[in-house]
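Table 4 source record.
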Amino acid sequence: MRPGQMLSYDYSVAKLFMFSTLIFGIVGMLLGVVIAFQMAYPDLNYIAGEYSTFGRLRPLHTNGIIFGFMLSGIFSTWYYIGQRVLKVSMSESPFLMFIGKLHFWLYIILIACAVVTLFMGISTSKEYSELEWPLDILVVIVWVLWGVSIFGLIGIRREKTLYISIWYFIATFLGVAMLYLFNNMEVPTRLISGHGSWIHSVSMYAGTNDALVQWWFGHNAVAFIFTVAIIAMIYYFLPKESGQPVYSYKLSLFSFWGLMFIYLWAGGHHLIYTTAPDWMQTMGSIFSVVLILPSWGSAINILLTMKGEWVQLRENPLIKFMILASTFYMFSTLEGPILSIKSVNALAHYTDWIPGHVHDGALGWIGFMIMAALYHMTPRMFKRELYSKSLMEVQFWMQTTGIVLYFSSMWIAGITQGMMWRATDQYGSLLYSFIDTVVVLVPYYWIRAIGGLLYLIGFFIFVYNILKSLGAPALSSEPKNATPMGGRANSEVSYV
């Protein structure tokens, strides 16, 4: 290694995961739009018999987005960010290159098997944990391979200081590993009864215990995939794109440890007014409200990073995506604690307000951040100019409109549901039947479906822009980061 020679990073694995992000994003979002229109127009459930029903397609949608689109985006950004902040190339270790490519191909096999089994109706019926035990084992193998990649790169790094994004990636790996192993403990049915299918299983937990473990996993999967890994991205990409250093490194560490200690105890808010112990429901509510502090700590830190440089919002579409993503993160992490307050939950539980809450975070925070990350990475990985800035603007406003239509319609629908379900006459009898509430909500379902369709069209624009960029004019050097007024770009300098 000679001082002064630039380090050449190997993005082959990052590129593979980038393409899978695009593919799974299209499939997952398309399924989401289909089932949204099924809610508005139920006859769409019966186009292909049982295989086109909401109940069959909905797990495909959630798993496709969470474990297809989102995880692919996280893996792709890790293989990009990890090398650059640790000042080491994957190509320096043939072992890590092998692990990275094995990680990708086993992951693709896993997702393909998940699609086939879920489409066939083979499921544990546990939300976000629908895969049966043979695929759970493959999940563990894939996850361990990612861990080997993370700690392998850290082990051979040149940069001794671990940037905050690395902390968040490590937390994602360790948190999900622990949660998944405990929640997915199950026994094949054939071992118990001596007959039936080997692929079918039953949970090692029963009744209320099963629900407690499931939502300890379910909510913290949101914590360590939806939240922690995406924060890892924005702490890297926003400073790089804007040329601004992170506002406060201490605040980033405070928020990190706050999220680690508080998030784990908030899952009980999914079980308010159930047979779960009342003290556990109360604990879930309290920790959910306290969770506002570290969540907003991260979001405010991100927004203050742009202090004095807000003019970049007008000039750079990627800054728009990331800042609005952070804003949606703030909305979602305030809305969740509000919904976990028992008096509010009494109105909102089981209503359409809940999917509204999930999707303003998923579409706004996660979707926008992953797309912004891939936009930033593309010219640097492929050494090509981004195809069209104007298409990025069109995509931004189309998807923002779609998100607003989606969550606002679901807020109104949810509050309407809750009020109708609890309305009584002077004798204490219910004023409305269940079907009355369904009929009233149909217009809001149409608005939601149209909002989802706008977001999907925006995603197609994103994919088109990325693919066209691969054939755009070549760059002689890496794109320059924005330079703040009176300062210098916050760029990396790597030497071999």
